[in-house]
Amino acid sequence: MGLSAGLRIPSYQRGHDSPPHLEVNQMNDPRCLLADDHPALTVAISAYLSENGFEVVGPVPDGRRAVLLAAECRPELALIDYRMPRMSGVDLIHAIHEVSPVTKIAVYTAEADEQLATEVLAAGAVALVLKEAPLADLVRALESALAGGSYLDPALARDDAPNRKLTQRELDVLGLLAEGLPHEEIGRRLGISSETVRTHLRKASDRLGAATRTQAVATALRLGLIA
Fold first, then answer.
1. Which among 131, 129, 159, 132 has a CA at the least distance from the CA of 144?
2. For residue 20, what is the domain's CATH number?
3. Residue 157 belongs to some domain of the structure
């Protein structure tokens, strides 16, 4: 059963999960759904993002309301706390993408955990920012996501494992794979066969200790090897 059916996405005239009133933005600033259960933090983030050219949608204090609001508004961006009531983490990333595939998701977390970074990037988030970082880093992350790129907090983007060094061709393949391109299109762009693409991907995955191509891309993003 699909997520949308399970949540019964409403028109917000019904139910008690109604989001805050949304005003139409005549300036066409990119909309960013904000989901965090710490009121003082959301006030500060909302003000800062508004000052820097974003229209804040919300904020909402739990994951379920974040999904409902994403379904209603389909914002360009979503900034979500990794741990929240009623739905969080990888489940929330998947849920938002199911109801609003166009939304680029940035995760905001207090946990400087490399495994967490790998998980959220593999789940489809395009940015991860630590809560200890300056608010300016949030803007950088969201601007990167909006431009089709990715962002990983510098505190997590370290490669201290020498066996993870990839060839330039392996990096090229991973970078194009991160853009969502199929093997055949990657091969066309690089002037190689799709089978050679798979060979480069297999070697890159082995060097990165990744079991799947999604994990390989997520690890390369986390280590700052591709952007």
1. 129
2. 3.40.50.2300
3. no
């060839």: which residue's tokens?
167
Of 8, 52, 53, 55, give the one whose Cα is nearest residue 34.
55
Amino acid at the residue 206: D
- The dihedral region occupied by 135, where left means phi > 0, alpha psi between -120 and 50, and beta the remainder, is alpha
Q: Which amino acid is at 49?
A: L
Q: With contact defined as beta carbons under 8 Å apart, do 80 and 141 qualify?
A: no
Say if residue 95 is in the same domain as residue 194. Answer: no
Rounded to two decimals, the pTM is 0.64
Closest CA to 66 of 3, 113, 110, 114: 3
Structural domain count, the chain: 2
Q: Do the domain assignments include residue 97?
A: yes
- Of 114, 105, 83, whose CA–CA distance to 33 is shortest? 105
pLDDT in tens, the chain (227 residues): 344 334 443 333 333 444 444 444 444 889 999 999 988 889 999 999 999 999 999 999 999 999 999 999 999 999 999 988 988 889 999 999 999 999 999 999 988 787 888 888 888 899 999 988 888 999 999 998 998 888 888 877 654 443 457 889 999 999 898 888 899 999 999 999 989 999 999 888 888 877 778 878 887 887 778 87
Domain that holds residue 202: 162-222
Give the closest residue to 127 by CA, choosing from 149, 97, 111.
149
Q: DSSP class of residue 163?
A: G
Residues 21 and 116 in one domain: yes
Q: Could you say which DSSP state residue 82 is in?
A: S
